[in-house]
Design a protein that fits this description.
By secondary structure, the protein is of the alpha/beta class. The chain is 31% helix and 22% strand. It folds into 3 domains: 5-89, Beta Barrel (OB fold (Dihydrolipoamide Acetyltransferase, E2P)); 95-254, P-loop containing nucleotide triphosphate hydrolases (Rossmann fold); 274-337, Probable gtpase engc, domain 3 (Ribonucleotide Reductase Protein R1, domain 1, Orthogonal Bundle). The protein is built from 10 helices and 13 strands. It has a 6-stranded mixed β-sheet, with helices on both faces.
Length: 345
């Protein structure tokens, strides 16, 4: 019995891209999990393992982001000796990329082709405002629709009040309190994966992502580590990206628990995550206003009248400074690579 790929989001966008590779020994599939040199994929024939071809490895030699990742749609090839290779990664509709810790400011692909990126932040012991803002900027930059999930809502006497407070950090983004124990919000979250859509979960270790995946799947498909009650922190329960098809169609993508997220060139993501400050800045007298002591600064005026908190402005300044530094490093690296190519030519 063949698997209907439309249940996983296969549509005209990916079918058109696949047309260039279509042949009798080829087939499309979606990556469930990517390991070193091999991927677990789901195609019409079911789940199988595919080793990376030389062409895929070569294209990713200078840019690891080109390697297949959970959520990617790929081209597989079956050989006469029954080997299966992954021959190409189809163009991505969306991509969740964070900056790695190296000095070259390269990117690490966390997930691909998701329709919604849900930032999962636990209510216990208390939400971290700065982390939420950083992750929402990353989610906006992916090209997918962001969502804020407040997990472990059963630990709060008034989760809706916490949701209203966090909504101030997430302009235009739905905020959903969720309790797997009491099933609060689970069906509301499930709706984001209906119709073949993909929901990616992003958050720190111990935030409850794997527990939520299990609740959505209706089975224990992801390992869950008990967290320490004192501080709400836990060890990394998911060390890899894992795409889980859901019984009713669609999929949820669990990403590794992350302690920190470096931003690359996420200027658009920051503008969306801090839409309130971006709107204020648009009304400053001068276009190059640095939002300090300049006359006619709408940001400074909002800070003075209390409509903008000093903490949020400081968070915005910090993230913009980080992005500016990483953008300069990227430009320097690209200029160096171009100069090297000219010298070799």
């Amino acid at each position: 019995m063949s698997y209907d790929l439309s249940r996983l989001g296969w549509d005209e966008f990916f079918a058109s891209a696949y047309g260039h590779f279509d042949r009798s020994d080829a087939a499309p599939a979606r990556v469930l999990r990517a390991d070193r040199g091999v991927c677990t994929v789901l195609g019409e024939a079911g789940v199988t393992r595919a080793s990376l071809s030389g062409s895929v490895l070569l294209s990713a030699a200078h840019d690891p982001v080109k390697l297949p990742c959970a959520g990617d749609w790929v081209v597989t090839r079956r050989w006469p000796d029954r080997r299966i290779t992954l021959e190409a990664v189809l163009p991505r509709r969306t991509a969740l990329i964070r900056r790695t810790s190296d000095k070259d400011s390269t990117g690490q692909l966390l997930a691909a082709n998701m329709d919604t990126v849900a930032v999962v932040e636990p209510i216990h012991p208390e939400p971290d405002d700065a982390r939420v803002e950083r992750l929402l900027a990353l989610a906006w930059e992916s090209g997918a629709q962001p969502l804020l999930i407040l997990s472990k809502s059963d630990t709060s006497s008034d989760p809706e009040a916490v949701a209203r407070q966090l909504a101030e950090l997430a302009p235009g983004i739905p905020v959903v309190p969720v309790s797997v124990r009491g099933t609060q919000g689970v069906e509301q979250i499930r709706a984001y994966a209906e119709g073949g859509r993909t929901l990616a979960l992003l958050g720190r270790s111990g935030a409850g992502k794997s527990t939520l995946v299990n609740a959505l799947a209706g089975a224990a498909v992801m390992p869950v580590q008990a967290i320490r009650d004192a501080d709400g922190k836990g060890r990394h329960t998911t060390a890899y990206r894992n795409l889980v098809p859901l019984p009713g169609g669609g999929a949820v993508l669990d990403t590794p628990g992350i302690r920190g997220v470096g931003l690359l060139d996420t200027a658009e993501g920051l503008d969306r995550a801090f839409a309130d400050i971006a709107e204020l800045a648009a009304h400053c007298r001068f276009g190059d206003c640095r939002h300090g002591a300049e006359p006619g600064c709408a940001v400074a005026a909002a800070l003075a009248n209390g409509s903008l908190s000093p903490r949020r402005l400081a968070s915005w300044r910090k993230l913009w400074h980080e992005v500016e530094i990483q953008t300069a490093r990227q430009q320097a690296r690209q200029a160096g690579a171009a100069g090297h190519r000219r010298r070799r030519g």
